[in-house]
Amino acid sequence: MKPVSIMYKEGVVLIGMLLFTACVSRPIESPILPEVVPQPIKGNLLYLTIDYKTKALEEDIPEWVHGYEGEGIPGIERLSEYQHRYVFVAKNTGTNFNALNQWTAGFRVTHDFARLVASRLQARLTGAAVLYPDDEYGGFFELAIKAAFDAVYYGAVKETDFWLLKQYYKEEDGVTVDRETYDFLILVSVDKSRLQSQLQQILSNLTPARPPTKEQTSAINRIRANLFNAF
């Protein structure tokens, strides 16, 4: 619009009134709130924890859960209360809350702890191997995992359990909801020296059907001596 020249005082007053009326009638704008951005996790997926076991009680997520979510088992074992204990976490993930709740209720240390120990032993042997584990240790590898799974352990206790409901977002935009998933966690711990003694006894009694080679014997002796470094 071309500018208009105001020649009379009446015109000036009229323009002023129109401007005042326009300002008064303009709707009040709502403040712009910061956008809630999902937090990144490993694998570049994005998620938000939208519910958890103690949320309705207005209680925070426990430190051990934060530690596990951030660093895995080491994140829990660094906590002062577990300084002299090995920690294990049984985890189950899915969308059926009732089924997962039943899984938690049915967990028994006397039955399920051996699986956790065998899984951790397998990871330790595999991580220390230069070659494929069967080549590195020969028949000792499979025999050790089976013996750990079949063993009866003493002193392990179920500390507690917890669940989280996570809403995942598509990696492409970080906004579109991809899925909602429950993570159910069961925390088990055992005295370090007690478990070490039991595992050393288990591994010392193994006799593979096929005798290991000289190189395999060296690898077996090496892992036996250093088994609990970064176990």
Question: How would you sum up this structure, described in words?
Answer:
It is a single chain. The protein has 231 residues and is α+β, with helices and mostly antiparallel strands. It has one domain (9-226). The protein is built from 9 helices and 5 strands, in the order αββααβααααββαα. It has helices spanning 9-25, 63-71, 73-77, 97-106, 109-128, 133-137, 139-150, 192-204, 214-226; strands at residues 39-40, 46-52, 85-94, 157-169, 177-191. The chain has a 5-stranded antiparallel β-sheet. A hairpin with a 5-residue loop joins β1 (39-40) and β2 (46-52). The radius of gyration is 31 Å and the shape is elongated.
Q: Which structural class matches the secondary elements?
A: alpha+beta
- Give the SSE string: HEEHHEHHHHEEHH
Overall helicity: 40-55%
**N- to C-terminal separation?**
78 Å
Q: Low-confidence stretches at least 5 residues in length (pLDDT < 50)?
A: 1-43
Layout of helices and strands:
Elements: H1 9-25, E1 39-40, E2 46-52, H2 63-71, H3 73-77, E3 85-94, H4 97-106, H5 109-128, H6 133-137, H7 139-150, E4 157-169, E5 177-191, H8 192-204, H9 214-226
Antiparallel strand pairs: 1-2, 2-4, 3-5, 4-5
Helix pairs in contact: 5-7
Task: For the structure shown, list the relevant keywords.
9 helices; 231 residues; alpha+beta; single chain; 5-stranded antiparallel β-sheet; elongated; disordered N terminus
